[in-house]
Design goal:
- The protein contains 25 helices and 24 strands.
- The chain is α/β, with parallel strands linked by helices and about 725 residues long.
- The protein has four domains: about 100 residues, Nucleic acid-binding proteins (OB fold (Dihydrolipoamide Acetyltransferase, E2P)); about 80 residues, no CATH class; about 200 residues, 3-Layer(aba) Sandwich (Rossmann fold), CATH 3.40.50; about 160 residues, Rossmann fold, CATH 3.40.50.
- A hairpin with a 2-residue loop joins strand 6 and strand 7.
- The longest helix has about 35 residues.
- It is globular, with a radius of gyration of 31 Å.
- The structure holds adenosine-5'-diphosphate and magnesium ion.
Length: about 725
């Protein structure tokens, strides 16, 4: 046994102090940056590599262009300053010339930069007294290493860890692992099919590659492992759910869904037809559906949801749709009632063999007798479809036979709430209802496979025809007064012109994350100043998060009834609210919002047939520019989601805590689409052949080792 290849668990069990050169003090520093075991050390990957043969020369440096140069230190000196600030300058160079580096407030550079040391310097050359210099560049000490490619590790000034120290420890760890080798838990047939290199080579190569191509192959293998572990959890979870739950095998022969679709005043888009088919295929199976429907604002998710619920109703079951707020539940209720106005349900107990389909609303505001009626008829089966809020999952709400659950705007609901609604279906037959979760927040496909990997995903990637795209303009209001610059002035002129012909406008107030109260105060102030100033001649309403839901609804109904021309609002209007006559939107301090949020907000206009416009107002022309530009350029939610992921990184999807614990060190949800797909397929192959991973113990052990408990829950939410 002693000679068996090392497992990740073995490496995790070796304290970092077993490494040569790591004494108490170095150990303390390493622990501070989260490196406690040999495994932690080996998975501290270089953040970049310097290719000695391929870097720029000092002679090539161009003023203003950030460049990496490999140089030797010629001299260093501390320059006394009269202020409290410190200054160290160094002259560095190569065979083509020299350049001076200036460091402010980094007195330790004097000790760090030794004459003749080889260093990599990354920075922007500037001209100073006629010569090029760099101020506070990024410096990596390379030392007198010989390889062509030098790994640069994340360094910590605070913990005083240098890249060459880390490199030497990694070297020591790999050398000592060499006799036993590091084992590979991936089934050989999968590894060969995907042409992945083995893990032992990958770990050696990622740290000390011979070439950049080799390094990329190593990264690929190790990133695949990270992704596979995540997929094993998700796919395992999905298969367990399918095994442990009995669904309803819905009656697909009925006519109701078809009659509903035929009676719509518009044909389904190709995307809607495709998704309805995907849903129907799930419903026909004995396994409960567990599907996420992503579709941009206005892509027509409701029609798909109703079509799905009707399949359940056809077979004598019930459908429930849960929305995150009362306003949205009521809006859905009104809309769905309209869509279903003429539909009839088969009913043996009736002389005519059928009856009118019954849709009811259940929210906190449905009270007294009405509530009792709805509850009674839900329990007896007299209500076919119920639309509601959290009220649907309270005790005392019983269904005769809940067959189809739709959850709208999923990010507002927690895991437990979804499970609670699903639980309502556990009737006498102990069946689990089918679940369709709808979201208007697009997530790039690769990310969806990782974050929602235990759900099937459908995408409505097409808007119904005839929508006029929303024209979006970026406006800079440099002094924040809202009224001075020409751009701002002409924006208000445009708004007034629209109001004068009977259209309506939203003014969205700055989001103030720190405090609800401040946000409301700001909104009140803006409301007041617009009423006196720019919009003095118009009726201006105010909506904010501190109002009771009754007050909010009053304001919304008034706005919808055109009793206000303009609605000044905080972000409470973000989700789903539908006022077709509102054609203009101004977002103040747009740079405070994220891309996804701006996109959701903008979706509040452009709901009718009139061309709509959106102005994104910023105070600082340099802040949030990429985000605002992306919105000006595109109204495609999926494109915007890609940009968002690009700008903000994976953190967008995983909360900070999860990111910290995350095993995804090398894999990128942005760039590794092929690897993600491959990992997912491999996970299915492995789990379907060996559901409890009995014959893949090493893989199972790694999953448990590397995915923190919270993260497993996160990844397998729902
Ligand atoms: P969302 O996906 O944002 O929830 P909705 O379901 O509310 O979108 O649909 C937005 C609007 O588009 C509704 O007024 C709906 O009636 C209409 N709609 C849905 N599907 C189509 C279609 N295929 N053709 C034309 N209009 C459609
Ligand atoms: Mg909707």
């Amino acid at each position: 046994m002693a000679d068996a290849p090392l497992t990740l668990r073995d490496l995790a069990g070796l304290d970092i102090s077993t490494i040569k050169g790591v004494g108490d003090k170095r150990r303390e520093a390493l622990v501070e940056v989260g490196i406690e075991s040999v495994l932690d050390l080996l998975t501290t990957y270089p953040r970049r590599y310097v290719d000695r043969t391929n870097e720029a020369h000092v002679g090539d440096l161009v003023e203003g262009v950030e460049t990496l140069v490999l140089v030797k230190v010629r001299n260093v000196r501390r320059v006394p300053l009269r202020t409290r600030r410190s200054m160290v300058t160094a002259t560095v160079g190569d065979t083509t010339g020299s350049i001076s580096l200036t460091f402010f407030n980094q007195p330790w550079r004097e000790r760090q930069l030794k004459t003749d040391a080889e260093i990599a310097v990354f920075g922007k050359p500037e001209r100073f007294r006629g010569k090029l210099q760099m101020v506070n560049p990024v410096v990596d000490i390379i030392g007198d290493k010989t390889g062509r490619i030098v790994p640069i590790y994340p360094q910590s000034e605070k913990a005083n860890l240098s890249t060459w120290e880390i490199a030497s420890w990694v070297r020591n760890a790999l050398d000592r692992a060499a006799p036993r080798t590091i084992g590979d838990p991936l089934p050989t047939r999968i590894r060969e099919r995907l042409s992945l290199i083995d893990r032992h080579s990958a770990l050696n190569t990622i740290h000390f590659p011979e070439s950049i191509v080799d390094k990329e192959r190593a990264r690929e293998r190790l990133a695949f492992d990270e992704l596979l572990r995540v997929q094993l959890v998700l796919v395992g979870r999905k298969r367990a759910f399918e095994r442990d739950n009995t669904g309803i095998r819905h009656d697909m022969a009925g006519e109701m869904q078809k009659r509903f679709v035929d009676a719509l005043p518009f044909p389904l888009t190709a995307a809607q037809r495709r998704v309805v088919d995907e849903v129907n295929a799930d419903l026909a199976k004995p396994v409960p559906m567990h599907r996420l429907l992503q579709g941009d604002v206005g892509s027509g998710k409701t029609v798909v949801a109703v079509a799905a619920m009707l399949v359940a109703v056809q077979g004598g079951h019930q459908g429930a749709l849960m929305a995150p707020t009362e306003v949205l539940a009521e809006q859905h209720f009104a809309g769905i009632q309209r869509l279903l106005a003429d539909l009839r349900v088969p009913d043996d107990g009736n002389l005519f063999g059928e009856r009118q389909l019954r849709v009811e609303l259940l929210t906190g505001r449905v009270t007294g007798e009405r509530r009792r009626d709805v509850l009674k008829d839900l329990a007896s089966g007299g209500v076919d479809i119920v639309i509601g809020t959290h009220a649907l999952i309270q005790d005392g709400v019983e269904f005769a036979s809940l067959g189809m659950v739709v959850i709208d705007e999923q990010h507002r609901f927690g895991v437990e709430q979804r499970a609670a609604l699903r639980g309502k279906g556990a009737g006498e037959q102990h069946t689990t209802p089918d679940v369709l979760v709808m979201t208007a927040t697009p997530i790039p496909r690769t990310a969806a496979m990782t974050v929602y990997g235990d759900l099937e995903v459908s995408v409505l990637d097409e808007l119904p025809p005839g929508r006029t795209p929303i024209a979006t303009m970026a406006v800079v209001d440099s002094d924040g007064s809202g009224g001075s610059s020409g751009e701002v002035e002409s924006m208000w002129n445009d708004i007034r012109a629209a109001l004068n012909v009977g259209q309506q406008a939203f003014v969205v107030c700055p989001m103030i994350e720190e405090s609800d109260k401040m946000e409301v105060a700001a909104a009140e102030k803006i409301h007041e100043s617009l009423r006196r100033g720019e919009l003095a001649k118009y009726k201006v309403g105010l909506l904010h998060g501190r109002m009771s839901s009754q007050e909010k609804d009053d304001v919304m109904s008034k706005f919808r009834a055109r009793k206000f021309d303009v609605l000044v609002s905080t972000t409470v209007i973000e989700v789903g609210v539908d006022v077709p006559n509102a054609t203009c939107m101004i977002v103040l301090d747009a740079d405070r919002f994220g891309i996804a949020q701006l996109h959701q907000l903008r979706g509040r206009v452009g709901r009718g047939s009139i061309a709509s416009r959106c102005w994104l107002v910023r105070q600082n022309p340099h802040v949030g520019m990429e985000r605002v530009d992306a919105l000006v350029k595109s109204t495609d939610g999926f494109y915007l989601a890609e940009v968002d992921l690009e700008l903000r990184g994976e953190g967008t999807l995983m909360s900070t805590a999860q990111k910290g614990a995350s095993d995804l060190k090398l894999a990128s949800l942005r760039r590794d689409e092929k690897l993600i797909t491959a990992a997912r397929e491999a996970a299915f192959e492995i789990i379907d052949a060996d559901p409890s991973l009995k014959r893949n113990r090493e893989l199972a052990s790694e999953v448990n080792l590397l995915l923190a408990r919270e993260e497993k829950e996160f990844l397998t939410k729902d």
